[in-house]
């Protein structure tokens, strides 16, 4: 799949170069963002397709097989990676994150470009503006690659179905991202009894559907899935997506920065109103809740304050609650998979992916 991404970028490189040499950083940063990653969305897209195909020997996902529709599937999976890169660029900007995967985030790299080239004006504003445009460019490119890919499908009905799923995914994740920033701004007005449900709704649309359910549905659509097959994949994908994001929330507070590529406690600095935070606030006395509300989201948090918040979360029992939620959601997903009308190979592969998602450290 990396070859397909590189081929696509190679075809767009002359277009940027013809516009101006000043566009070089847009290509460079795009390639860097697309060179790494866990490729979960691409893998779920592939196995969504494979699960309805019934092919005994599908070959290596990243290899070359004679299957007619495989190039279209690989292209669609690559388009999901471009879309994900766009989402990361915009997400880092919204969250004011300095790093991504252990390297400077896109807006910080553009900011450095401004300083290195001794441009006039505000470097931070230049970085932010450039990152917005880079994210937009990656969104445009993801749509181009997706369109090119589904045009290669043998069945136009499958192409239309996959396009509908792709379009719905983009609406869901954009709305989910908006719900996330609303949650960070409106929490004093949300009744305590609704705070956990609000946080779950955010992760459902911002991450769970987009990370797993939608890629599965897109892949299955490419393969002409039946209604029963699509329903089974959704029943598997949505709870697994919730578990995926809950694990992310734990890593955002307690993850090893050497592994995650993000500073320890980054979600605390960014003020994320996650399920973990909602459960912590629900369990602690009013004095501790007030301290959390005062410190959460403070960009000047010290290391000692981060540690204090971490200890408060540990003492509340919220970590155990979230771990139980992860376990319950993974079990729901696997139960749905056991009886699903899908190929045996795909059920095995999806089961292994579920395990890797639930126990990952980055």
Automatic annotation (TrEMBL):
Highest taxon in the source lineage: Bacteria
PROSITE patterns, per the entry: POLYPRENYL_SYNTHASE_1, POLYPRENYL_SYNTHASE_2
Cited SUPFAM superfamilies: Terpenoid synthases
Protein name as annotated: Polyprenyl synthetase family protein
Cofactor(s) it depends on: Mg(2+)
Organism encoding this protein: Amnibacterium soli
Keyword annotations of the record: Magnesium, Metal-binding, Transferase
TM helices/strands, residue ranges: none
């Amino acid at each position: 799949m990396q070859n397909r991404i590189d081929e696509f970028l190679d075809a767009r490189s002359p277009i940027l170069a013809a516009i101006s040499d000043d566009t070089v950083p847009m290509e460079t940063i795009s390639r860097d963002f697309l060179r790494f990653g866990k490729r979960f969305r691409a893998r779920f897209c592939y196995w969504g397709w494979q699960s309805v195909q019934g092919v005994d020997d599908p070959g290596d996902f990243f290899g070359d097989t004679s299957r007619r529709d495989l190039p279209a599937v690989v292209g669609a999976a690559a388009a999901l990676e471009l879309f994900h890169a766009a989402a990361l660029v915009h997400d880092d900007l919204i969250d004011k994150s300095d790093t991504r995967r252990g390297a400077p985030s896109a807006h910080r790299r553009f900011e450095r470009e401004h300083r290195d080239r001794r441009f006039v004006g505000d470097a931070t504003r230049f970085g932010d503006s450039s990152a917005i445009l880079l994210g937009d460019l990656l969104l445009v490119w993801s749509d181009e690659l997706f369109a090119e890919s589904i045009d290669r499908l043998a069945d136009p009905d499958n192409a239309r179905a996959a396009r509908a799923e792709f379009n719905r995914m983009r609406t869901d994740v954009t709305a989910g991202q908006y719900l996330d920033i609303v949650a960070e701004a409106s929490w004093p007005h949300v009744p305590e009894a609704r705070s956990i449900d609000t946080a779950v709704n955010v992760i459902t649309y911002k991450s769970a559907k987009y990370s797993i359910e939608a890629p599965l549905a897109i892949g299955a659509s490419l393969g002409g899935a039946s209604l029963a097959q699509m329903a089974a994949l959704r029943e598997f994908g949505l709870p697994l997506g919730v578990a995926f994001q809950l694990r992310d929330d734990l890593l955002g507070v307690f993850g090893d920065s050497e592994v995650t590529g993000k500073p320890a406690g980054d979600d605390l600095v960014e003020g994320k109103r996650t399920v973990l935070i909602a459960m912590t606030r629900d369990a602690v006395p009013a004095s501790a809740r007030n301290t959390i509300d005062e410190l959460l989201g403070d960009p000047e948090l010290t290391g000692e304050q981060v540690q204090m918040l971490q200890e408060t979360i540990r003492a509340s029992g919220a970590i155990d609650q979230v771990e139980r939620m992860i376990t319950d959601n993974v079990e729901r997903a696997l139960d749905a998979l056991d009886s699903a009308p899908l190929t045996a190979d795909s059920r095995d592969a999806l089961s292994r992916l579920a395990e890797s998602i639930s126990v990952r450290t980055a």
